[in-house]
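User: Design a sequence. Structure:
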């Protein structure tokens, strides 16, 4: 069944607390990486991706904070998330949203692979017809 309202509110508060906590940790790690970059060290590919993701999350945080600060605007957050799904920083995503995003990426890759396979098969047929 459905959870009581109090439990749902507490779950949402825990979700946002953990999201802000993870964003704070990512920001501290990113600051250390920037410090290393400024002192001439080179970042690995993984560190560079994490730094870029954290910077993007910090820029996404600005419009998200408007919803948190303005009273009763948090009720519009689901509408805006439906219109702009990438508006929420990555630390606030739920597991189901992450899985859905991975599923969409996989389907896109499969469609691309199918298209490339068909294109290569068609090119092979043309080459056989030209040489045969």
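Assistant: Done.
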């Amino acid at each position: 069944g459905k959870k009581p309202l109090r439990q749902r509110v507490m779950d949402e508060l825990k979700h946002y607390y953990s999201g802000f906590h993870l964003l704070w940790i990512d920001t501290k790690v990113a600051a250390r990486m920037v410090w290393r970059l400024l002192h001439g060290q080179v970042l690995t590919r993984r560190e560079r991706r994490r730094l870029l993701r954290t910077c993007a999350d910090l820029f996404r945080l600005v419009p998200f904070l408007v919803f948190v600060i303005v009273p009763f605007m948090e009720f519009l957050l689901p509408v805006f998330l439906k219109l702009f799904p990438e508006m929420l920083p990555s630390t606030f995503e739920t597991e189901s949203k992450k899985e859905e995003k991975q599923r969409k990426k996989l389907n896109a890759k499969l469609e691309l692979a199918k298209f490339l396979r068909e294109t290569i098969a068609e090119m092979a047929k043309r080459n056989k017809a030209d040489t045969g």
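The two ends are 68 Å apart (CA to CA). The chain is about 80% helix and 0% strand.
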